[in-house]
């Protein structure tokens, strides 16, 4: 019997709905009108049909998604879409360090040749660095010795690969590099006529970026990312770019690097993190540790940058053009912000200012700044001067009082503290990637409470810190803009400004070790410690505008100790932190004192006291928190729940960060209302 042509519902792709629709369709046929599908072997066939239809529908849906840049999820698809827009995703970027080298025996010809291997060991693992250009060694007074300063070395291993152009006369000859972790910025391409002809050995071909300037005779090569994550170089067809001839030798050198993972090497800050070495005849001194390394561009970044790069048309006119070109061609930073010099303070007319948000715990290398400036000069008007500047960093610090329930966890107090710090850092980092960031303290606390079931309450006091290197040649003082209101509940309030120790020239011309605080009435004061007491040397050291968060220091006669910057810290008077223009919110993960987490144990057995009467049990509530803390809590302070509630409400006796005495270790400060001492 023929199947009647009735409508089959195709309104869903899930298995159950597909199977149900097929049953409805079959029951409309005379043959299966009263058939029990679930009680027969036919149900197996229905399952197979439903599964096949389900899988095919999902596959078709996913395939369709890969056809568009906005919906594609596979990297190979996004790379292909980006290629159609003339966009090549960024490769991994090698961190760069700057070193000085002293030679007891200078290298041959007093030349530090390209490709020398420098080594640094971190936690028992050795990483290689190398210089990509030649440096001239300056002779010194020692026999056969010399020195060279400001040598830039990049992390990675210098590799080379040669290719022979085939004789099949193919256009757009493409050659694949065998390594995936290639820093494409370090690629160097040379083309020789043949294996016996060295006439062009010094000719280095340039990467083709501006197709309007490339002619049939231009020695240009091009880069593309392949479907497997490797990179290929290819050449012109005789119309756009010079075409290679059969038998030509293509020599390619490049740096294979570990990227962002090796940022920070060379600090020499611990026993397991040492500075660089070259050979037994040299001593290497670190000028600046490795920084600026970046991972391969993510698929999210490709989806965002590819159309913006196409819109800029390889020229820099608007601020969006500048940001797009920088993000598309450089890495080693989290975000970029571009603004006109007329909007700077003070104004800098005729300049375009570029601020880069560095990766965590890194700085922006001077070499990267120079590269970006040189690149932008080729893309913008001759009347405009691009200038890459360092952002104003506002370092986040905090003190947190945490009450937890031991019945809800088996974790030690140290582990709970660690988890609280990690969760706060995670929220902070995820909300400070870009300029003009907003960090909500209430949402930060909410994340902690939702992720840690043992935590009952969190009271958090935020601080911001700015750092600067004093300049004795500065004709005036210094101004620090914190972009956020400073805590100031009333006139004459206890100090909310503190600092590390630094040098100050007093009225007698003596340099003394001093600290800074405020008088609660808009004045900054400078004092020295004498027997734990404050001896004020200048009660008009500067001024403070609490509402706008601006500190002004009147003098420039300042100095530093132990090569540290002067650090000024303020307590923030709002429940959110914001950053504007070239200011950024950041954390110094190397600063162990940036986060103080004080634990309070809620050890009430049932949070209720049970009393027996003749007729029934009665429950009487209790509001006290035991002052007897778990003996696993080390160096933590005790506090009643009354004080705890004051802290949570933002009263004047809120918990502070530990005070700092340069001669001692960090103590834990009691919750006194005057917050005495620096840090």
Detailed description of the structure:
This protein is an alpha+beta fold. Among the domains are: 15-65; 96-156 and 260-291, no CATH class; 158-256; 313-390, 2-Layer Sandwich (GMP Synthetase, Chain A, domain 3). Helix content is 18%, strand content 32%. The strands form eight sheets. A seven-stranded mixed beta sheet has the order 8-14-10-11-12-13-9, with no helix packed on it. A seven-stranded antiparallel beta sheet has the order 22-28-27-26-25-24-29, with no helix packed on it. Helix 3 (75-84) runs parallel beside helix 4 (299-312) and helix 4 packs across helix 5. It is globular, with a radius of gyration of 33 Å.
Query: Which word captures the global form?
Result: globular
Distance between the termini: 92 Å
Mean pLDDT: 81
Major sheet strand order? 8-14-10-11-12-13-9
Q: Into which percentage range does the β-strand content fall? A: 25-35%
What's the β-strand tally? 35
